[in-house]
Amino acid sequence: MDRHPQSYLDFERARRRAALQDILAALRRRPADLLPFEEVEEKLHLRPRGYRGLEDVPLDRIVGSVGRYQDFNRAFLPRRDTLRDRWQRIDTLVSTGGGLPPVELYKVGDVYFVRDGNHRVSVARQHDAPTIQAYVWEFETSVPLEPDMDVDDLLLKGEQADFLQQTHLQQIRPDARIEFTVPGGYYKLLEQIAHFQRAISQIDQRDVPYEEAVALWYEMAYEPVVEIIRESGILQAFPGRTEADLYIWVLRHQQELSQRYGRPVLMDRAATDLAARSPRWLLRRYLQRLRERLARLLRRLPPRRGR
């Protein structure tokens, strides 16, 4: 056993916690792995912003690592016995009152990635420290990152970054917020914008620039459908989904209804019909009709006579 038995026990406790957290994360479908910075940098097209200096960083905001993302879980608990020697030396230093040198972190949005100091972050988490001192370098990103993201979320954020980079929608319409919950939606929008650009060019009999087509598509195609979705209230029938999700679904459903009936179907009709196919929506409509019937029956009852 190590000359410092407490550090040995601390590492054993951390390893058991790591195994237990991995099992619970799988059962709860929560992210268990650290995010790899290299993949984040590639998918989100990160751009260096500069050195921020020495800062106190909340430990629960550190969600990834450069090159060591498989050695620790999302809570920075050690997953490998090969980490023991270095981990225990750092733990002994902390337990005996020694100070740790600052770690080095990359900041992306509101989260951080360890450039150097994974073991120090792990030991600090094991000792329930709220923050850690770090030299911080910041990267710019066009999409927000949240502490509870997983690799699947990263894939979706990568698609969003591609969409924003190609369309420049953030510069054209800073108020625009298009969020999907499943991959593939942004690429469908890019296809629709390309079709829209060709159609507008034919109507105007000129080559409409891409950014102008993006602005017109947002104002003439996307916003009106989203307004119908908001007014109809059908988003309540699809918990956990977004307006952008329903935008794609409503358009697809409109095409299906138009083919079925052999004539164009209005967008609001497609939205209402889509909502009516949701069990939650049907149950709410049934309860509403039941309450209306009970109210009509109560109005028909004769007034009670006083005693």
Could you write a compact summary of the structure shown?
With 307 residues, the chain is of the alpha/beta class. The protein contains 11 helices and 6 strands. The protein has 2 domains: 5-140, Conserved hypothetical protein from pyrococcus furiosus pfu- 392566-001, ParB domain (Alpha-Beta Complex), CATH 3.90.1530.10; 168-285, no CATH class.
Would you mind describing this structure in some detail?
The chain has 307 residues and is an alpha/beta fold. The longest helix has 24 residues, at 5-28. A hairpin with a 2-residue loop joins strand 4 and strand 5. It has a 6-stranded mixed beta sheet with strand order 1-3-5-4-6-2. The chain folds into 2 domains: 5-140, Conserved hypothetical protein from pyrococcus furiosus pfu- 392566-001, ParB domain, CATH 3.90.1530.10; 168-285, no CATH class. It is 54% helix and 13% strand. The model has no long low-confidence stretch (mean pLDDT 83). The protein is elongated, with a radius of gyration of 27 Å.
Write the layout of secondary structure elements.
Blueprint: H1 5-28, E1 35-36, H2 37-43, E2 47-58, E3 62-65, H3 84-95, E4 103-108, E5 111-116, H4 118-126, E6 131-140, H5 151-167, H6 169-172, H7 185-204, H8 210-232, H9 243-261, H10 267-276, H11 279-300
The ordered H/E elements are HEHEEHEEHEHHHHHHH
From the spread of the alpha carbons, the general shape counts as elongated
The tally of helices reads 11
Mean pLDDT: 83
CATH class of the largest domain: Alpha Beta
At the fourth CATH level, what is the homologous superfamily of the largest domain? Conserved hypothetical protein from pyrococcus furiosus pfu- 392566-001, ParB domain
Distance between the termini: 89 Å
Helical coverage, percent range: 40-55%
Known CATH architecture of the largest domain = Alpha-Beta Complex
What Rg, in angstroms, do the CA atoms define? 27 Å
Strand order of the largest sheet: 1-3-5-4-6-2
Total strands: 6
Q: Which percent band covers the strand fraction?
A: 5-15%
Q: Catalogue the unreliable spans.
A: none
User: Which fold does the CATH topology of the largest domain refer to?
Assistant: Conserved hypothetical protein from pyrococcus furiosus pfu- 392566-001, ParB domain
Main sheet summary: 6 strands, mixed
Instruction: Determine the structural class based on helices, strands and strand pairing.
Output: alpha/beta
Number of domains: 2
